[in-house]
């Protein structure tokens, strides 16, 4: 018999459904006690039989969402992603999911609860980008639960919940005149070589803060991007760059080479003066005692004062010299593929999508060149 209803007392029924045999040939049953009428028990039996026949039935698990997320992070996430991605997944789930939903049984999580979670985040002023990132992580986690047979369907499926409209960040880049003013104002700052490198090579802050002298080849005027500096709380570590394409060799301008050579001499004198207290990590840009610089300190104590001295908007961020590098090169007519390789983007399409605001001027220049070739 595929399913049966057994009365256990007044308005108490046991619903029993045959699920097949396990790998050892033993019969498997799903048992559920229903408190209600026999019609209630029959409705439950019919629903389970239908799900079983469609292949969508999953036995309710006793596991809470918290317990499942721990298992998912350890078994499915950790082996396939970099440490920083794992940390980001773990942190966003801890911050926004575990307190409101963590103690609920995994199979009891509903789409409306997930929708309410997203709405609550928006009401608290969190950005659409944060909500969409959390959704990507939570959707991935619950999709794996479906694959593992712990739940019949994903309550965070895109067709079941609505996401906030994605905001396109306003790209900030200095004009050629602003870039000149910035570098002129930075000349007397001890980190002038750092800002010059950031603006002329387009490196990410986490890349140039992890740069070591062994990565610089003065003979060929190149720098190899081999690692990134990752900070978590008060700790730090070196990791692989963001993507495979992020590992790259970058050409250095003659002005930058001279600035780095002078910087290396000053750093050697400082290291000699510090003596045994200096931790020599071979960093190109090291703080007091030889340890890596902290981006927030660099911004507050050096980058922002330089902007003020140059008369530039304080809204520029430490990441914006990278955007400036790309924008200036594309506006000057440089091949997007060359710019993409310089930035370490995973695809040329990413470069074009990110810097699409530059394309109209590039297209205008192309039309003018075609006009000159054919009709002048």
What can you tell me about this protein's structure?
The chain has 376 residues and is α+β, with helices and mostly antiparallel strands. It contains 15 helices and eight strands. The strands form three sheets. It has a three-stranded antiparallel β-sheet, covered by helices on one side. The longest helix has 21 residues. The chain is elongated, with a radius of gyration of 29 Å. The N and C termini lie far apart (89 Å). The model has no long low-confidence stretch (mean pLDDT 90).
Low-confidence stretches: none
Q: Helicity range of the residues?
A: 40-55%
Query: Numbering strands along the chain, what is their spatial order in the largest sheet?
Result: 1-2-3
Q: First CA to last CA: what distance? A: 89 Å
H/E series: EEEHHHHHHHHHEEEEEHHHHHH
Rg to the nearest angstrom? Answer: 29 Å
Globally, the shape reads elongated
| Annotation, overall tally of beta strands | 8
Average residue-wise pLDDT: 90
The largest sheet is: 3 strands, antiparallel
Provide the structure class: alpha+beta
The total of helices stands at: 15
Query: How much of the sequence is in beta strands?
Result: 5-15%
């Amino acid at each position: 018999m595929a399913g049966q209803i057994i009365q256990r007392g007044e308005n108490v029924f046991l619903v029993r459904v045959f699920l097949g045999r396990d790998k050892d040939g033993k019969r498997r049953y799903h048992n559920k006690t229903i408190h209600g009428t026999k019609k209630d028990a029959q409705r439950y039996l019919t629903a389970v039989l239908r799900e079983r026949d469609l292949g969508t039935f999953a036995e309710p698990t006793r596991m809470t969402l918290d317990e499942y997320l721990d298992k998912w992070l350890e078994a499915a996430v950790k082996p396939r992603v970099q440490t920083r991605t794992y940390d980001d997944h773990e942190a966003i789930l801890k911050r926004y999911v575990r307190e409101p939903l963590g103690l609920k049984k995994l199979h009891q999580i509903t789409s409306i609860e997930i929708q309410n979670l997203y709405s609550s985040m928006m009401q608290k002023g969190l950005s659409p980008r944060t909500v969409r990132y959390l959704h990507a992580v939570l959707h991935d986690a619950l999709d794996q639960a479906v694959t593992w047979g712990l739940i019949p369907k994903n309550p965070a499926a895109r067709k079941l919940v609505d996401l906030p409209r994605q905001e396109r960040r306003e790209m900030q880049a200095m004009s050629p005149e602003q870039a000149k003013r910035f570098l002129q104002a930075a000349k007397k700052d001890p980190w002038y070589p750092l800002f010059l490198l950031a603006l002329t090579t387009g490196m990410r802050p986490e890349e140039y803060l992890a740069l070591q002298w062994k990565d610089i080849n003065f003979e060929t005027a190149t720098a190899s991007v081999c690692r990134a500096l990752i900070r978590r709380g008060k700790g730090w570590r070196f990791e692989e760059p963001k993507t495979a394409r992020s590992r790259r060799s970058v050409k250095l301008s003659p002005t930058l080479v001279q600035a780095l050579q002078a910087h290396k001499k000053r750093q050697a004198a400082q290291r000699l003066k510090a003596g045994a207290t200096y931790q020599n990590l071979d960093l190109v840009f090291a703080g007091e005692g030889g340890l890596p610089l902290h981006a927030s300190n660099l911004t507050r104590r050096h980058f922002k004062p330089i902007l003020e001295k140059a008369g530039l908007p304080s809204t520029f961020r430490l990441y914006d010299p990278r955007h400036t590098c790309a924008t200036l090169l594309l506006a000057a007519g440089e091949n997007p593929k060359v710019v993409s390789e310089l930035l370490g983007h995973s695809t040329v399409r990413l470069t074009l999508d990110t810097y699409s605001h530059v394309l109209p001027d590039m297209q205008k220049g192309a039309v003018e060149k075609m006009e000159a070739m054919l009709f002048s």
